[in-house]
């Protein structure tokens, strides 16, 4: 924090910034590989694909690619980001629920893996997959699969529970006739070689996630028995490992989940099936911090309120669903030094953002050292979703984001920063808000 102030990444003219710990991201990637290497049979093809929606930042995707992590994409924009980061087609998986025919065609031509979401999308693939010359089944350039919803239930955050009875994702396996339709769909399409299921995300217990994987594995076994060969050769088990936002402890971790999967679905790791995962938040959340300046300190109804530059435009989920997405807040002085608690102890206060609505609060009645103008607040564990998925309320500019590395210790400590995304300019805000068409409506 001190280095960010000293190097002028944050100050009166740049009152909010996102910081990413490069070593922390690399360590998370290494832990993911190590956890699954512990349980998979030697020689098993494994692709860990980062869910790009969690941090749609090209330098982050490149950093993860350097650590052997591919990309799971859910839009043309996310695919473009993955390609700009240099991620190879065979390390990209497309999982959007509303893919257009043009998007499917591009994916097939590029040779990236595609998981169809529903029967209508599968029919589109039928028309796009080109048979090879001569007799025999169609051979698409990249792997094609089908997403299924095992309907095992939801977690504590309904909006992130993707395996409920009425989830919009995938083919609902427990609906009347659905399982039989899926088996028949594979029987008719020798080029369909993958099953995909993603049970949920934050708020979903590991046991629920493992139950969804088990249901998907059992379906793959049934399909392969029916067709009489190993047609399904890869299972995509999604991601969704929850993150502990209450402390610095990383719990659960990847090994917890991998060992639970080994116990719950032993056949998953015996070498017959390749494996794809799609973790996002858990790879990067703990490595991010939003640092914001306190512009004013006031009170209302006897409660102190710190007005900062980090609110709903960054911490969107926390502001609109604070029970599900609470964040830890730390207080620093204007030099980036941790602010001590006064002689009377911490002061319960609200930490508010800059947006023009009353509910723009990232913390309510939170005990902290009393904040004053010029102080800094840090929102912890904000590496995923917070720094990259900006909410453009009030046309507030997107903040700059910087990765950092630390070397040395004590007086010899050195902090180096590298730009990840430049701060958005006012000209850029005007341009993306139709500035070039300013007079278009006046002439109608």
Give the helix/strand layout:
Blueprint: H1 2-6, E1 16-21, H2 22-37, E2 46-51, H3 58-66, E3 70-73, H4 76-84, E4 92-94, H5 101-110, E5 113-116, H6 119-128, E6 144-149, E7 171-172, H7 178-188, E8 192-196, H8 206-227, E9 234-236, H9 254-264, E10 274-277, H10 281-284, E11 288-300, E12 303-308, H11 316-320, E13 329-332, E14 347-352, E15 361-368, E16 376-380, E17 400-407, E18 414-421, H12 426-432
Parallel strand pairs: 1-17, 2-3, 2-10, 3-4, 4-5, 5-6, 6-7, 6-8, 8-9, 9-10, 12-14
Antiparallel strand pairs: 1-11, 11-12, 11-16, 13-16, 14-15, 17-18
Describe this structure in words.
The strands form two sheets. Strands 1, 11, 12, 13, 14, 15, 16, 17 and 18 form a nine-stranded mixed beta sheet that branches. Strands 2-3-4-5-6-8-9-10 form an eight-stranded parallel β-barrel, surrounded by five helices. It has helices spanning 2-6, 22-37, 58-66, 76-84, 101-110, 119-128, 178-188, 206-227, 254-264, 281-284, 316-320, 426-432; strands spanning 16-21, 46-51, 70-73, 92-94, 113-116, 144-149, 171-172, 192-196, 234-236, 274-277, 288-300, 303-308, 329-332, 347-352, 361-368, 376-380, 400-407, 414-421. Helix 5 (101-110) crosses helix 6. The mean pLDDT is 93. It is globular and about 75 Å long. The protein is an alpha/beta fold and 444 residues long.
